[in-house]
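HUMAN: Now follow token order:
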Amino acid sequence: MAKFLGRGAELVDAWGDGDNGACHVAGNDQRPLVAHVIFRLDYGGLENGLVNLVNGLPEYKYRHAIICIDRVSNLRSRIEKSDVLLISIKKKPGRDIGALVKLYRVFRRLRPAIVHTRNLGALDALLPAVLAGVKVRVHGEHGWDISNVDSKNRKYRWLRIMHRPLVTQYVALSKQLQVYLEQAIGVDAERISRIPNGVDTKRFRPAVDRGNLRGDLDTLLGSNIILIGTVGRMEPEKDPLTLIRAFCIAVKHTGMRNSRLRLAIVGDGSLRAAGQKLLIESGLNDMAWMPGARHDIPEFLRTLDLFVLPSLAEGISNTVLEAMASGVPVVATRVGGNPELVIDGETGSLLPPSNPELLAKAIEHYAFDKELRGRLGIAGRRRAESVFELDKMINDYDALYRRLMPKEWREPRPSIGGC
């Protein structure tokens, strides 16, 4: 059975007669509801972008529900609005007809003005939305997963083609994804809106005095360091092991005993243990910091001298934007939307994926040229402010939702009370 979850509350039965679950659904709030469907509300770029959007859209215009095909994680603590409804479908592995029935019932009960699905894992929600009478179905493509990094997986392509008639409008985060939808999926260009991720340049900002922010890193890794770091899930598609291998190569090149290089990887995942093993085997475990997931990402980014994103696949990377906004130069792989963010030679460097030797050379190049790091960091900050400001992303989604909104919802009326 699907469960409704209020922010900070216990799970309550969506279909019971109690006031707690019914109140969220049956209240007199007359703002249009946007139901966002994702696979899981966990730490990641897609999910972070969704939370930013929900927090940023005008409260008087919209209500929001976040429906997770799988489950909800502690990322819900970042949701600032108290009336966002979180729903966990808890789909079973494989084909789960029961999950489709749950989705249909949720849509029938909520009566959303718009259902907005994201990525392959949420495509299953489109048919239940149609059957439940939802007039507007938006589908966003945010990037690739490890089984489809080259976008040539035939099964996934046919799944998208089969669902194409059910989508009212597509959102592509990058030019690469837009071209894929047009050429591989056969979507007409006018049915695609390109809306890149945005970054909060007030929350993510350069350090006034970076030395005062090292804190625990100084204690763990020593002082007078050059800190190379990244933020992301430690999963195969993010390829953190290539970064670790490149760091080991760079340290050996600069002299293990006297090297000032240090590595910090914030994030958790299935490759974390393998990464720690690599560091131990190289004798560099005491020169690296891998604390798992953390909530102080803005502060962490301000401690870095160089940000590295070694991914095999990306849409529009939130962490690259956050590093740029923090005034940190970026070395990233030339995949997905990364070339739309990083200007090679002006805000950082773009490299081929899965090449630790070349990445090690880039790390060495930037690590010992403070003037270069400062110049590229300033340019990255300016680019984040001028092109990828969070307010622009929010305004673009607001305009899209208003344009697609069914007629009966186009003039939102204020709430006349609730339960």
About this structure: The radius of gyration is 22 Å. The chain has two domains: 3-198+390-409, 210-387. The chain has 15 helices and 15 strands.
